[in-house]
Amino acid sequence: MEDVSATQLLLLSALLFLLPCSAYDACDELDHDDLLSLPFKAPLNWSASTDCCLWDGIICDPLYHIRVIRLWLPKRGLSGVVSSAVTNLTRLTHLNLSHNSLLGSLPDDLLSSLPSLQVIDLSFNRLIGRFPPSSNASNHLQIINLSSNFFNGAIPSSVLVPSISIYKVSNNSFSSFSGHIGDGIVKLTNLNILELHSNQFSRKIPSHIGNLSMLEKLLLHTNNFTGPLPSSLPNCKILSSLNLRVNNLTGELSAFKFSTLQRLATLDLGNNNFIGELPQSLYSCKSLTAIRYGSNQLTGEMSPGVVEFSVFTHCPSFPSLPTT
Question: What are the record keywords, sorted (predicted)?
Fold first, then answer.
């Protein structure tokens, strides 16, 4: 009797050992069917008779190779819409459908249904409407890129979670994001890149934008921002690129502490309504390589000492941003 029990235990152990190997052979059936139901019109080599984890643009979880975690299809010539079937891929961490010809609006529960999402890139498509809000956007979300679409309306504050490091919603100007940025943006304390240019943002730049101490690139050009530069902006001490061109910004620059921006390489203040003297603190920006400040009401001559910094537009032997 003991020998029989030992044999049974041995068989059971072998069976349990083999189960993960069997699971490794095929992706989740529901994920498989949801992927096939996506209404993308493109020459994707997806076959219903094969494991979806082997399909082009699909990556499954590395442990059991069952659930789809990445839908990565940039520049695949996709057309059609982003259907609600995407929201059923609940283990997705990366969603990249950029540089295609996708149309229509996004599912209302896109972010709410993807609690593990880290990257969403839908840039360079033909998507319309408002970006959907989220009652529980992923706390893992790091990158949002919605640039070069036809989105409109305000940016939902519910999607602005502290984990975001790259936030790009530029060039939706045909049917633009509008309204003010909102104070929610200044809570993104891990933000490295903020690109909001070529929209219809208005009102003042948030006064507490200096809270974004990790910010390296701030591109707000070609909008309708008004008011003076926020006094907190010099707190963004690792900022390397600042573009505020083509807005309705006002006020004097002389009191602005450019000297704290020691990593600033490019600065564009052109086509605004700044007045007064060019700030002397600009001379302290030792990393500055290009600047544009034309089409304002700035006065004064640059100090001869500025030549050694190789930055200013009226020094023809040095590089500068174009004036148009």
Answer: Cell membrane, Glycoprotein, Leucine-rich repeat, Membrane, Receptor, Repeat, Signal, Transmembrane, Transmembrane helix
